[in-house]
Amino acid sequence: MGHWLGVKSYDLIIVGAGIIGTACADYASREGLRVAIIEPGPIGGGATAAAMGHLVAMDDDPAELALANYSLALWEDFTGIEQIEYSRCGTLWVASNEAEYAHIPAKIARLAAVGVQAERIDSDQLYRLEPALQRGLTGGMRVPREAVVYPPGMARHLLNRACARGAALYPQRATAITSHGVQLEDRTGLAGSVLVATGCALPQLLPQLPMRSRKGHLVITDRYPGVIHHQLLELGYADSAHGDADSSVAFNVQPRPTGQILIGSSREYGSDTSEVSMSMVRRMLERSFRYLPALRQLNALRIWTGFRPVSVDGLPYLGRVPERPNVWVAAGHEGLGITTSLGSARLVIDQWLGRTTAINARPYDPARVATWA
Amino acid sequence: MNQVRIAINGQALDVPAGISVAAAIARLQWPFRRSPRGQARAAFCGMGVCFECRVRIDGIAQQRACMVPVREGMQVMTDE
C-alpha cells in the first residue's frame, strides 16, 4: 500500500460480474458514470449460471413483489436479444387441493394491485393447458406474461453494453476495500466509490452484512419439445422458498426453448460443497413425478448445484453500507436475483446519484441489519 | 496393435483397442449430434466436461463419446 501513483480513478468500482453486478454496470454506464467492474471468474459464473432463469413475481412479501414487479417491466427491453433466450412461456401455479385453490383469489388480488395480470383456472382448463400433469389436481393460477431467460447470457449482454460505453473490466480478485477504493490481487489500486455485488462471497469484503448460502440442485433433460408449455410450480412453493427449514423440495419445472426440461427445486442450508447429493436429487425428483409423472420416462443429461445468497430477512441489501463512506452493496437476492436484478441496479445507482428511487428503497436498506443484531 | 470391430451407424469399423468412442467417430469425420438449430456438433473438450460429443452407445442415449472406450461389437449411433 501507500504508492497510489498511477492509480486509476472511477466514479464506481463494481465488485462481481454476476447478473447483479453487470446490471449495475449497465445502468451506471448508461447514466454516464465511469465504471470499473472486477471479476476473477467467468461472467455470470456463480449463482447466475446455476439459476433456472424464471422471471416471476412472488406475491408473499410486499417489498419482494414491488422489486420484482419493477424489474419485470425493465426486462421487457430484453425480449428480442438472441443470447438471452427470452421465452414468454408464462407461469402456471398448480393447486393440489381445495385449500390451495381457495388462496388463489387473494394472490390474484395482490398481483393485480401492482399491475400483474393473473387468472384462476379450474381443473378442466389446467389439463387443456398442460395435459401431462397428474390427474386429480384442483386447478391453478396462470400468469401469462412471465418468462424464462438464460441468465449468464444476460450477464454477458449487460457487461458488453457497459464495456461498449467505456466500462473497464478487471479480470482479477478484489482483495480489500481501502479508504480510497479497491485493491486488486496484483496490488493495483482503483480509486472511487465501491459497490459490492458478490452474492454468497459478500462476507469476504463486508463481514458486517450477514449472508448465508442456500444450496440448490437442478436436473436438465434431453430435448422433449411439447411435454410442458409453462413454467410449472406447486402453490406450496412459497412455503419452501420462504420457510427456514434445513432442507426442502418443491415442484418447479421449466420448458427450455430447446425442448429440454429443467427440473427443480431444492433448498438446503449447511452444505458448503458443490457436490451433488443423490438423496436430495431423489427427493426433488419424487416431488416432481407426483405432479408430472411423464418426467419418469425422460433421460436426464446432467445435474448441477448452486448457492443462493440469503440475507438476514430474505430481501437483498441494496444501498449504502452503514458506517462505510463510499461503500455500497447490491447482494442477497436468494432465489429471485435474475428477476430482480434490473430493478435492484436502478435502486442502488439512483441512490448513488442522489435521485429519488422509482420504488421505496427503505425495505432493502442495509442499515436494517443493525436491528437484527 | 490390438484391433476391435465396432459399428457406427451400422458401418463396421476396425479401430485400435483402448481408444475412445469419440476418437473412433472422429476417424469418419461425421457429426456427433446436432444443436437445437441443426448445426453439426463434435467432441470439443475431450474430457467429459462440455457434453458436445453425446451419442447413443449400445442403445443408451446421450453417452459422452470421449469418456467411453471402444469395445468389440459396440453399436454407436451418431447424429440422431
UniProtKB/TrEMBL annotation, chain A:
<protein>
    <submittedName>
        <fullName>D-amino acid oxidase</fullName>
    </submittedName>
</protein>
<dbReference type="InterPro" id="IPR006076">
    <property type="entry name" value="FAD-dep_OxRdtase"/>
</dbReference>
<keyword id="KW-0560">Oxidoreductase</keyword>
<feature type="domain" description="FAD dependent oxidoreductase">
    <location>
        <begin position="11"/>
        <end position="350"/>
    </location>
</feature>
<dbReference type="Pfam" id="PF01266">
    <property type="entry name" value="DAO"/>
</dbReference>
<dbReference type="InterPro" id="IPR036188">
    <property type="entry name" value="FAD/NAD-bd_sf"/>
</dbReference>
Automatic annotation (TrEMBL), chain B:
<keyword id="KW-0560">Oxidoreductase</keyword>
<dbReference type="Pfam" id="PF13510">
    <property type="entry name" value="Fer2_4"/>
</dbReference>
<feature type="domain" description="2Fe-2S ferredoxin-type">
    <location>
        <begin position="2"/>
        <end position="80"/>
    </location>
</feature>
<dbReference type="InterPro" id="IPR001041">
    <property type="entry name" value="2Fe-2S_ferredoxin-type"/>
</dbReference>
<protein>
    <submittedName>
        <fullName>(2Fe-2S)-binding protein</fullName>
    </submittedName>
</protein>
<dbReference type="InterPro" id="IPR036010">
    <property type="entry name" value="2Fe-2S_ferredoxin-like_sf"/>
</dbReference>
<dbReference type="InterPro" id="IPR042204">
    <property type="entry name" value="2Fe-2S-bd_N"/>
</dbReference>
